[in-house]
Amino acid sequence: YWWYSAVYVLPKLRYNALHPYTSWIPITGFIVLRNLTKGLRSWHISLFCWCGKITLETYISQFHIWLSTSNVPNAQPSMLMSLVPGHPMLNFALCTALYVGVSKRVFAITNDLKVA
Fold first, then answer.
1. DSSP character for 101?
2. Which residue has the higher pLDDT, 24 or 77?
3. pLDDT greater than 70 at residue 16
4. From CA 61, how far away is CA 25, in angstroms rounded?
5. In this structure, are residues 81 and 68 in contact, taking their beta carbons and an 8 Å threshold?
6. Hey, how many other C-beta atoms are within 10 angstroms of the C-beta on 15?
7. Rg (CA), the chain
8. CB 103 within 8 A of CB 58
9. φ, ψ of residue 80 in degrees (nearest 5)
10. How does pLDDT run across 36-65, given as a tens digit for each residue?
11. What pLDDT does residue 1 have?
């Protein structure tokens, strides 16, 4: 509670200055609470488990699928790929579905190549 009321609610620039020194507080709190009892350790969220399996593939493919470098001189991604111009939420949903689907497929191909 102290971290939330004293650090998390600060203005962005002040929070960013303190973040490297205080980010361990909520992480440690979560780890301690998660490991207090056997019952808490036995529960997990399947979505997070599934997302954790394709983390490497999402990291690698984010610049190729999700982010756009078109018409940028130094090829630094500055915006989301636009499939449906003028509809930002629909565009975000479609690009994210494509991104996650391709990442899942790349994960499957990577595992097939490991076995081969």
1. H
2. 24
3. yes
4. 31
5. yes
6. 13
7. 20
8. yes
9. -70, 150
10. 989 888 888 898 888 899 998 988 888 777
11. 80
pLDDT tens for residues 78-93? 666 778 888 888 988 9
pLDDT at residue number 91: 85
- DSSP state letters, 4-36: IIIIITS-HHHHHHHHHHHTHHHHHHHHHHHTS
Taking alpha carbons only, the member of 32, 1, 6 closest to residue 18 is 6
43 φ/ψ sector (left φ>0, alpha ψ -120 to 50, else beta): beta
Closest CA to 4 of 92, 18, 68: 18
Contacts of 82 (CB under 8 A, 6+ apart): 68, 91
Which is nearest to 4 in space by CA: 25, 33, 34? Answer: 25
